[in-house]
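ESCALATION

Customer reports they have been waiting on this structure for their group meeting. Please prioritize. Original submission:
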Amino acid sequence: MIRVAVVDDHPVVADGLRIALAQDDGIEVAWTAPTLEAARAALAENGADIDVVLLDVRLPDGSGLELLPGERHGKPAYLVLSTFDRPQYAATAFRRGAAGFLLKVAPMDEIIDAIYRTAAGGLAFEARHLVSVRSAPAFTPRELEVVRLVASSLSNDEVAARLGISHKTVEAYLSEMFRRHGFSTRTELALWAEREGWLDAPPIQ
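Update from on-call: job pushed to the front of the queue and completed.
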């Protein structure tokens, strides 16, 4: 019996997964959690009994990707289920130790197959998502802070004041990101970051 936990803040999704997975004789949904805090508490209490965690990205108290362990070994395996098909989500999920990444619109038999595969130690990433892993940019924690504040329409001076760094340091971070990723303006960087999911993806430590 594969024991599954569902981390998703939408009751319709969580209950729908519980009901659908209950139809498979080899899968049992042990518990559901609507927030990162609740999931961390449940995993701390009985995480060793869980084989696969179905994990949403956008949760009320942060990114579900923050729950990922950073490496793939032992139990539980983490299978990210997202509404949004964003390359940075898949890339960050892979880099932070997820065993798979699927969209919530995937057929249930595909989700069930991914559960069996990841519970057995395999991976459940589509080929195009593995391409994203190779091509998606990685940001340091400080770079992500700068990008998030720029995307919030703060000026360089305001970003500097918020982070406690100099105006020149902010310019240096932006110049380096422009050079590394081919951007030419702050607006271009902010719009691309939002579209690709960088703002929701925690940095790789």
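Sent to customer with the following note: The first strand starts at residue 2 and ends at 7.
Escalation resolved.
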